[in-house]
Amino acid sequence: MPALSYYTNVHNTALVILQQKGYRVWTQQEPERICAEKGGWDFMALDPVQLLGVISIHEFHNPSAFGEYWWKIDEPRLDDSIPTVPPDYVPVWQRK
Predict the structure, then answer these.
(1) CA 85 – CA 87 distance, rounded (Å)
(2) pTM for this model (two decimals)
(3) φ, ψ (nearest 5 deg) of residue 84
(4) Cα–Cα distance between 5 and 49 in angstroms, integer?
């Protein structure tokens, strides 16, 4: 059992984090999305956890101006090489 995994019960926590970070959050009805804005940078996702994820990409890059694919990292190519076996570790919930 992971220490944390995605489920809808994480949505409110993500919304609180976004609010504490200073983002203004709203919903869009058609198509149904959740949106956020801060400093003129706006973001959209299917749920609050995804929204927090894309905002984390923005915060990582911290762009000074908008440009095409400002968020993209091409190298190294990791999406095709993720291991299928977990590393050897002791989960926090099993530590004594």
Answers:
(1) 7
(2) 0.89
(3) -95, -5
(4) 11
CB distance 48 to 11 below 8 Å: yes
Q: What is the dihedral of CA 57, 58, 60, 66, to 10 degrees?
A: 130
Residue that has been written with the tokens 């994480």 in this structure? 10
Residue corresponding to tokens 């003129």: 40
Q: What is the 3-state secondary structure (H, E, C) of the chain?
A: CCCCCCCHHHHHHHHHHHHHCCCEEEEECCCCEEEEEECCEEEEECCHHHHHHHHHHHHHHCCCCCCCCCCCCCCCCCCCCCCCCCCCCCCHHHCC
Question: How many residues belong to the chain?
Answer: 96
Q: Using one digit for the tens of pLDDT, what is the confidence trace for 22-63? A: 999 999 999 999 999 999 999 999 999 999 999 999 999 999
Q: Is 11 exposed, middle or buried (0-12, 13-18, 19+ CB in 10 A)?
A: middle
What is the pLDDT, as a whole number, of residue 78? Answer: 93
